[in-house]
Design brief:
8-stranded parallel β-barrel; alpha/beta; 8 strands; 47% helix; single chain; 207 residues; 20% strand
């Protein structure tokens, strides 16, 4: 079954906790977005994990170097999963994975900006990534011609456990499920909705 991940790209701990409280019954993974962590620091990870100890808390660090060190910092703050960029050196990914294994946690490799996503996904899966995120960032999504189908096709072709982030919504969730994705990551479709709980519930029902 495809799990549902909410990406919280808000900028305050208070707002993040409020949103997480509304959608927690319908999601499996609570992601703290990169802007949120840069704005609020490690305490937001602790706050969300303390509020939702039964949920997987995902710290979207987008680590590019010092994989072991940044993994240690985030896991000690309460994160269950962290991201390392797929464009990072293999040693950076391997370092983060080693720390994750020591602590019973996981590393997700984010393929944002990686041209050949399917090939890199197989490479980083071999390095120990729990799953690989086929991700189109907000800037990429705003470009003419962007299509979620490109991510889904590459994810399926990779033949490794993958998540999809970038344009997941009520209108695309069936295609995400059909692609075989392990995790569907929804951000704006939930946090920008008039009723975030209802939006999350609709996505959950579709999965």
């Amino acid at each position: 079954m495809t799990r549902l991940q909410v990406a919280i790209d808000l900028l305050s701990t208070e707002a993040a906790l409020e949103l997480a409280g509304k959608v927690a019954p319908y999601v499996d993974i609570i992601e703290l977005g990169t802007p949120l962590i840069k704005s609020e620091g490690l305490p937001v990870i602790r706050a969300v994990k303390n509020a939702h100890p039964d949920k997987t808390v995902f710290a979207d660090l987008k680590t590019a170097d010092a994989g072991a060190l940044e993994a240690q910092i985030a896991f000690d703050a309460g994160a269950d999963l962290i991201t390392v960029l797929g464009s990072a050196d293999n040693s950076t990914i391997a370092g983060a994975v080693a720390v994750a294994k020591e602590k019973g946690k996981g590393v997700v490799v984010d393929l944002i900006g990686v041209p050949d996503k399917a090939t890199r996904a197989r490479e980083v899966h071999a390095l120990g990534a729990e799953f690989v995120e086929f991700h189109a960032g907000l800037d990429e999504q705003a470009q003419p011609g962007f299509s979620l189908d490109t991510l889904l096709t590459a994810g399926t072709a990779s033949e490794v456990p993958f998540s999809v982030a970038g344009g997941v919504s009520a209108t695309t969730i069936e295609a995400v499920k059909a692609s075989g994705a392990s995790v569907a990551v929804a951000g704006g479709a939930i946090y920008s909705a008039t009723d975030p709980a209802a939006a999350a519930a609709e996505l959950r029902a579709a999965l």
